[in-house]
Amino acid sequence: MDNKEQYKVRKEPFYQAQRNEVALYEAAYAARLPVMVKGPTGCGKSRFIEYMAWKLNKPLITVACNEDMTASDLVGRYLLDAGGTRWLDGPLTTAARIGAICYLDEVVEARQDTTVVIHPLTDHRRTLPLDKKGELIKAHPDFQLVISYNPGYQSLMKDLKQSTKQRFTAFEFDYPEASVEAGILSKEADIDPGLAGQLVKIGQAARNLKGHGLDEGISTRLLVYAATLIKGGVEPRDACRMALVRPITDDADIRDTLDHAIDTTFA
Ligand code: ADP
């Protein structure tokens, strides 16, 4: 049996609010409106949802979507075992049954048929048809659907359809403003604010290269990685090359430009 408690976020996650998103999310949840969180990778979307699940004291079921994911992966399937066939609920079905917040991370990655199954859950019906099982689930009153997506690097082909988009309320996230981001780094990795400020500066230099050789800037997540390595004793220039530059580019010119920015910052 699925245990609601196992999906609860037990410890308060550290989340630095950027604007009034916490109050807005609470209002959306109160009305059980579906929520979409847009923004570049590693800017705090998942952390925000985790924090909200904790604050609202609701179970959270997160599904990282990928291109091989089908509707059955979300909804469930029959399994064959020694005892014969038995049905196994997928994560979306579990969330609808127990009244969890279901967070579909990077939903556009999943195949089109998955977006179709979420539709009846996002309107007044709040139902989930399990076609293969011949069952129609009525979502638990606490159930809420949340999706994230990164509009930046999706090809037009992979964009969400308007008929899906227009079923959601939406938050537009971006990398935090410099002082806020420095605060996040110093809290997450326990580093001093001066060092956090230097890392943020490198992040910003890279973000200016977006569209000029870089598809995405350096994320807050990577800045946290760099901060963590430095905190662990790695020399700052090595830490930055390893956490901030090598992961994001294979282009020698861009790499040299960023390495240079690092050397200047930590000269
Ligand atoms: P994504 O937008 O890809 O879901 P995450 O929420 O996983 O990104 O954020 C990546 C990391 O960045 C987090 O693990 C956390 O360390 C840090 N982070 C980003 N934004 C915030 C924030 N507002 N408050 C606290 N941590 C943050």
From TrEMBL:
The keyword Nucleotide-binding belongs to this UniProt entry's keyword annotation: yes
Pfam families with a match to the protein in the record: AAA_5, CbbQ_C
PANTHER family in the record: DENITRIFICATION REGULATORY PROTEIN NIRQ, MOXR FAMILY PROTEIN
Keywords: ATP-binding, Nucleotide-binding
Stated family: Belongs to the CbbQ/NirQ/NorQ/GpvN family.
Domain of life: Bacteria
CbbQ/NirQ/NorQ C-terminal domain mapped to chain residues: 181-264
Record keyword rRNA processing present: no
MF term (GO), any: ATP hydrolysis activity
Domain ATPase dynein-related AAA, first and last residues per copy: 34-168
Gene3D superfamilies named in the record: P-loop containing nucleotide triphosphate hydrolases
Organism: Sideroxydans lithotrophicus (strain ES-1)
Protein name, per record: CbbQ/NirQ/NorQ domain protein
